[in-house]
Write a structure and sequence with these properties.
By secondary structure, the protein is of the alpha+beta class. The chain folds into 4 domains: 111 residues, Jelly Rolls; 111 residues, Jelly Rolls, CATH 2.60.120; 105 residues, Phosphorylase Kinase, domain 1, CATH 3.30.200.20; 149 residues, Transferase(Phosphotransferase) domain 1 (Transferase(Phosphotransferase), domain 1). 38% of the residues lie in helices and 24% in strands. The chain contains 17 helices and 31 strands. Strands 12, 13, 15, 16, 17 and 19 form a 6-stranded antiparallel beta sheet that branches. A hairpin with a 2-residue loop joins β6 and β7. α15 runs antiparallel to α17. The longest helix is centred in the first third of the chain and has 50 residues. The protein is globular and about 105 Å long. Keywords: ATP-binding, cGMP, cGMP-binding, Coiled coil, Kinase, Nucleotide-binding, Serine/threonine-protein kinase, Transferase. GO terms for molecular function: ATP binding; cGMP binding; cGMP-dependent protein kinase activity.
C-alpha cells in the first residue's frame, strides 16, 4: 500500500510540474501576444500618421499658416423664374447616352441621382468652336461646365501643356458650384463640339428638385395620423433625418410578425400588403406614391401586422424609431434661458464704443525680423487684412479688420458685410469675438474688434500635429456654447474651421469671421452655396437646401480634425473633396477613442 501511495504521489508531483510548465508556457505566449498586439497597434498608428498629418517643424508651421483654407461662395441668387420645361434642348438618344456616360465617369457628377442627371442632360446646350478658339482662360472667373462631344482641346497652365481633352471628357465642373478663378486655359486644337451648362441653370435644377421633394414629403407626412399634432418645423426636421431606400421587385420590406421600428413613405412604385389568414397569404391592398406604413413603430415597440412586398422597383423614404425620438424631443426642450445673463452685461462695450475714433487707432509695428517697421498682421482674407492696433490714450489693443469697398462691390458682398456688422454689434457672448466699433472712409470699411492674443487654433494645431482628447473636448465645448447662442437667435454660422477659432488672453476659444452667417427662421431652408470645402455638409454641395444642421455637420468635422490633425474629407482638388463628402466614408485612426468616433458619426450622418 505504501509503495502504491508513493507511486501515486510521484505521479501527482510530476503532473503538477507538467501543469506548472504548461501554465508558464501559456503566460509566456500571452505576454508575447500582447507585445505583438501593441507593436501592431503602434505600427497602425504610425502608418496613419505617415498617411495623414505629420509633425511640423517651425518653418513648416509658418508655411501651413500661410496656406490656411479659403472659403468659397456662389455669388448670384438662384433665379426664381427659370422655366426648366421651356429651356430643354433636344438631343438624340446617342447624344444623351454619350453625355450620361461622360457624367458617370466624373468624380463629382456621378454622385448626382438619376433625376438630377436626367434634368442636366436635358438642359445642356450645344456649342461649336473652331481651332484656336479659347474656351477657358486661365485666371478669369468662369460659370460653366463643359463636356466634349467631339474634337480635341489642349489644356495649358502658365504656357505649359498639361493634357489633351477628347470626346467624353468633362472640364470646368467647379464653376457650376461657386465663383472661382480658372486654374488653366483650354483651347480648341481642332474643330470641337461641346455640351455646356451654366451655374445658374445647374443650381436651379438642384434646388427646384429639392424643394419639390420636400414639399411632397411634407404633404405626405401630414396625412399620417400619428404625426398630425406636429408643427411644420418638427416635420421638417423629420424629413432631414429620413433616408432614401430602394427595393427590387418581390423584395419584402416588412414581414408580418417581425419587430418593427421603421416608418416608410412610398415615393415611387407600388407595395403589396398581405396578411396570413388560415395559413394562406391574403392580399389586403396595394399602396402607391404618397402612402405610408409602419407609423406606429415610431412611438412604441410593435410586431408587424402584415407583410409589405415591393411590386417592381420601389423607392421609399424611411426613418427609424431611434432617429425619430432623437429628432422630436430636441424640439420640445427649452434652451437654457440666458435673459438674466444678458441683462447683467457690463457697460464695458458701451464705454469702448464711446471713446473709439478711427484717427486714434495706431498700428502696432513689428520690432524686429524681416518685417521690422511694418504693421503687425493678424490675418488675411479675401477682402482685406486684419491688423493689430492700439490707442495712446487708453493703451488697449484691438484687431482692426480693413475691408475694401471696391472688392465688396465687385464680389457683390455688400449684404453679407452689412449683416456681419449687424450680427457682431448685437452679439454679446463670451465665446464669440466682440465688435467694439465700425467706421468707413472713401475706400474701406473698418471693423474694430476684440484682440484675441492667444492666436488661431489652426496655428496651435499645426504646431503639435493633433490635440490630446481633453484639449479637443474643451475647444469643442466652447464652439457648442457659441453655436447654442447663435442658433437661439436664429443665426447659422456656416464657416466653422480651426482658422476661425481664436484664443483670448484667458485661454477661452472664440468664434470669429461672420461673413457667411445668415438669419433663418426655424423650419425654413436656404440654398446658398458657401463655406470651406472640407467642412461643407452634403446638402450644401447638392443644393438640397440647408439649415442649422449644417453647423453640426461642420462640428463633427472639426472634432475629427482636432483629434487627427487633418479633416476626414480632404484632397488637393476641391471636386474630389466634394465627392468624398457625398460618399460619406470616414476612416478613423486606431488611436481615436470610441466616444469620439460615436460623436463624430452622429454629427456627420
Amino acid at each position: 500500500m505504501e509503495v502504491k501511495l508513493k507511486e501515486l504521489r510521484q505521479k501527482l508531483e510530476k503532473q503538477c510540474q507538467v501543469n506548472q510548465e504548461l501554465q508558464n508556457h501559456n503566460q509566456n505566449l500571452e505576454k508575447r501576444l500582447k507585445e505583438k498586439e501593441k507593436l501592431l497597434e503602434d505600427l497602425q498608428s504610425r502608418l496613419y500618421e505617415l498617411e495623414g498629418p505629420s509633425q511640423k517643424g517651425s518653418n513648416e508651421v509658418v508655411q501651413e499658416v500661410r496656406e490656411s483654407r479659403t472659403a468659397v461662395m456662389a455669388l448670384e441668387p438662384i433665379p426664381e423664374d427659370l422655366d426648366i420645361q421651356t429651356t430643354k434642348v433636344k438631343k438624340t438618344a446617342s447624344e444623351k447616352a454619350q453625355i450620361m456616360k461622360a457624367m458617370g465617369r466624373n468624380d463629382f457628377l456621378s454622385r448626382l441621382d438619376e433625376e438630377q442627371i436626367s434634368m442636366m442632360v436635358e438642359m445642356l446646350i450645344s456649342l461649336d468652336r473652331c481651332p484656336g478658339d479659347k474656351i477657358i482662360k486661365e485666371g478669369t472667373e468662369g460659370d460653366s461646365l463643359y463636356i466634349v462631344a467631339a474634337g480635341e482641346l489642349k489644356v495649358t497652365q502658365a504656357g505649359r501643356d498639361l493634357r489633351t481633352l477628347t470626346s467624353g471628357d468633362v472640364f470646368g465642373e467647379l464653376a457650376i458650384l461657386y465663383n472661382c478663378k480658372r486654374t488653366a486655359s483650354v483651347t480648341a486644337a481642332t474643330a470641337v463640339k461641346l455640351w455646356c451648362i451654366e451655374r445658374q441653370t445647374y443650381r436651379s435644377i438642384m434646388t427646384s428638385k429639392s424643394k419639390k421633394k420636400r414639399e411632397q414629403l411634407m404633404g405626405f407626412l401630414k396625412t399620417a395620423r400619428t404625426l398630425k399634432g406636429l408643427k411644420d418645423e418638427q416635420l421638417s426636421n423629420i424629413i432631414d433625418s429620413m433616408e432614401e431606400v430602394r427595393f427590387q421587385d418581390n423584395e419584402v420590406i416588412v414581414r408580418e410578425g417581425a419587430e418593427g421600428d421603421t416608418f416608410y413613405i412610398i415615393l415611387k412604385g407600388e407595395v403589396l400588403v398581405t396578411k396570413k389568414v388560415n395559413g394562406q397569404q391574403k392580399v389586403i391592398r396595394k399602396m402607391g406614391q404618397g402612402e405610408h406604413f409602419g407609423e406606429l413603430a415610431l412611438i412604441r415597440a410593435i410586431l408587424r401586422t402584415a407583410t409589405c412586398t415591393a411590386v417592381g422597383d420601389v423607392t421609399c423614404f424611411s426613418i427609424d424609431k431611434e432617429l425619430f425620438e432623437e429628432t422630436i424631443p430636441i424640439e420640445s426642450l427649452e434652451l437654457h434661458d440666458d435673459s438674466e445673463l444678458e441683462n447683467t452685461v457690463t457697460s464695458e462695450k458701451e464705454r469702448l464704443v464711446s471713446f473709439l475714433k478711427l484717427k486714434d487707432l495706431i498700428p502696432v509695428l513689428y520690432q524686429e525680423g524681416r518685417y521690422q517697421g511694418e504693421p503687425v498682421t493678424l490675418g488675411l482674407g479675401g477682402f482685406g487684412r486684419v491688423e493689430l492696433v492700439t490707442t495712446l490714450l487708453h493703451g488697449k489693443y484691438f484687431a482692426k479688420k480693413k475691408v475694401s469697398k471696391k472688392l465688396i462691390v465687385e464680389k457683390r458682398q455688400g449684404p453679407h458685410v452689412i449683416f456681419e456688422k449687424k450680427i457682431l454689434q448685437d452679439i454679446d457672448c463670451d465665446f464669440i469675438v466682440r465688435l467694439h466699433a465700425a467706421f468707413k472712409d472713401t475706400r474701406y470699411i473698418y471693423m474694430v474688434m476684440e484682440f484675441c492674443s492667444g492666436g488661431e487654433i489652426w496655428t496651435k494645431l499645426k504646431e503639435v500635429g493633433r490635440f490630446e482628447e481633453k484639449i479637443a473636448v474643451f475647444v469643442t465645448a466652447c464652439v457648442v456654447e457659441a453655436f447654442a447662442y447663435l442658433h437661439k437667435k436664429n443665426i447659422m454660422y456656416r464657416d466653422l474651421k480651426p482658422e476661425n477659432l481664436m484664443l483670448d488672453s484667458k485661454g477661452f476659444v472664440k468664434l470669429v469671421d461672420f461673413g457667411f452667417a445668415k438669419e433663418l427662421r426655424r423650419g425654413q431652408k436656404t440654398y446658398s452655396f458657401c463655406g470651406t470645402p472640407e467642412y461643407m455638409a452634403p446638402e450644401i454641395i447638392q443644393n438640397q437646401g440647408h439649415d442649422f444642421a449644417a453647423d453640426f455637420w461642420s462640428l463633427g468635422v472639426l472634432v475629427f480634425e482636432l483629434l487627427v490633425g487633418s479633416p476626414p474629407f480632404s484632397s488637393s482638388e476641391p471636386q474630389k473633396i466634394y465627392a468624398r463628402i457625398l460618399d460619406g466614408v470616414m476612416k478613423f485612426p486606431p488611436y481615436m477613442g470610441e466616444g469620439a468616433r460615436s460623436l463624430i458619426s452622429k454629427l456627420c450622418r
